[in-house]
Amino acid sequence: MSDLPFSFTIPIPHVIPSRVDNHIKRTLSALKGQFLDEATYNKMLNQEDSLIYEVYEIKRPEVEGELLMGISIVHPGKVGNEFFMTKGHFHSVLDTSEIYYTLKGEGYMVMETPEGETSVEPLSPGKVLYVPPRWAHRSVCTSRQEDLVTFFAYPANAGHDYGTIEKTGFRKLVVEGENGPEIIDNPRVK
Predict the structure, then answer these.
(1) Which of 7, 29, 124, 132 has the fewest CB atoms within 10 Å, counting from its CB?
(2) What ranges make up the beta strands (E) of 59-113?
(3) Taking the mean position of all CA atoms in its chain, how far away is CA 52?
(4) Alpha carbon distance 31, 86 (integer Å)
(5) How many CA atoms lie within 13 A of 53 on its CB side?
(6) How is the chain split into domains, by residue range?
(7) Does an H or E element contain 122, and which?
(8) Across the chain, how many H-helices and E-strands are there?
(9) Over the stretch 53-68, which tens digit does the pLDDT of each residue have?
């Protein structure tokens, strides 16, 4: 990695950055225990370990003062009536924030603090979302046929804590309701 300034492009509608240092693919098996309808999850997983989301990272040294950035792509789909989503995470350095800019698709960012405060913000093209320090966050794609694509940037020393969410889940879920997406309480989280 160079200490020199650099640039890259995010060509629309293709959205894959012209510079990519790491490509992460998360399949259905990576989200074990995160969907409410475990029977449907298991049935789907037995048929195919479908690709749920991808992350294209532009890496920097993971030290204070640097920024990590990239593109997150959550593909459309559902497990039962719950929309496809990212694993979700707190930052290991809890007092770090993150910025998301929606390029394509529709969805929500589900967020919560360790103390239980929640927020669910809609995502649509052109929307910028600021995730404050101490807020876990998860992207959810509610588009029927289009990927939810966001550009993100956060402090390079922030790290990721996936384990807390894997144990407890988020307090809010995004599901298909009679009139479209609905936000509901997660009955597994007390």
Answers:
(1) 7
(2) 67-74, 78-79, 82-83, 98-104, 107-112
(3) 10
(4) 8
(5) 21
(6) 22-185
(7) strand 118-123
(8) 2, 13
(9) 999 999 999 999 999 9
